[in-house]
Amino acid sequence: MIDKEHLPHRDDDDDLDGYTKVDRYNPSLIQNLSGHYHDVLKQIGENPEREGLLKTPERMAKAMLYLTHGYDLDAKEIMNSAMFKEEYSQMVIVKDIEVYSMCEHHMLPFFGKAHIAYIPNGYVVGLSKIPRIVDVFARRLQVQERLTNEIRDCIQDTLNPIGVGVVIECRHLCMSMRGVQKQNSVTTTSAFTGEFLKEKTRTEFLNLISAKLG
Ligand SMILES: Nc1nc2c(ncn2[C@@H]2O[C@H](COP(=O)(O)OP(=O)(O)OP(=O)(O)O)[C@@H](O)[C@H]2O)c(=O)[nH]1
Ligand SMILES: [Zn+2]
């Protein structure tokens, strides 16, 4: 389950961007949600009382609360917690960051990789904070385009680098296990600021993320 100790929580007066704050560790919320999933099982023609499904509504409730725990996190707080003054002026890239999110249209998973770069402007950020902010925005109901822009904007607004580049490549289960049923299509989105809007920098970034190590 969620490692509660290490998750910074929003204060009550934080800007919730229109989300309703829920206490996702509250047993009565889990119980209430389980009741709805019990009903869902019945409505799809299953028998929620059969042995294999007895604990399924509660498992589903806990899983859904986990898969959306990004609403509880504050990406700017995470970035601000580990910025270090450093005279390094070349591109910093963290690539192949696993992304697990859910599309807001079908609530089905989309998953793949994020590649993120920035050029420091006097400060660097703790490397682990970059995958952490990917999770903050991915662990919500999303579209891939908004996810990409939110990561870019968060890094730009907190670290104030000379530029940010974000590329995300994902497979959407709503396009493979249902609907159009295309098994091999991958969606690529990108977002840039500053220096990365220039072709030379963007090309260097794209070349470095395509390069194989070793
Ligand atoms: N732009 C964008 N679209 C997405 C994303 N995830 C899912 N979708 C699309 O959201 C659209 C919803 O379209 P609708 O026509 O309302 O839904 P639908 O009838 O279930 O559509 P089909 O998936 O084509 O069967 C679909 O085209 C999905 O492929 C995403 O991250 N970005
Ligand atoms: Zn979908």
UniProtKB/TrEMBL annotation:
GO terms for biological process: one-carbon metabolic process; tetrahydrobiopterin biosynthetic process; tetrahydrofolate biosynthetic process. GO terms for cellular component: cytoplasm. The keyword Zinc applies. Zn(2+) binds at C103, H106, C174. It catalyses: GTP + H2O = 7,8-dihydroneopterin 3'-triphosphate + formate + H(+). Pathway: Cofactor biosynthesis; 7,8-dihydroneopterin triphosphate biosynthesis; 7,8-dihydroneopterin triphosphate from GTP: step 1/1. Its EC number is 3.5.4.16. Belongs to the GTP cyclohydrolase I family. This is GTP cyclohydrolase 1. It comes from Mucilaginibacter lappiensis. The gene is folE.
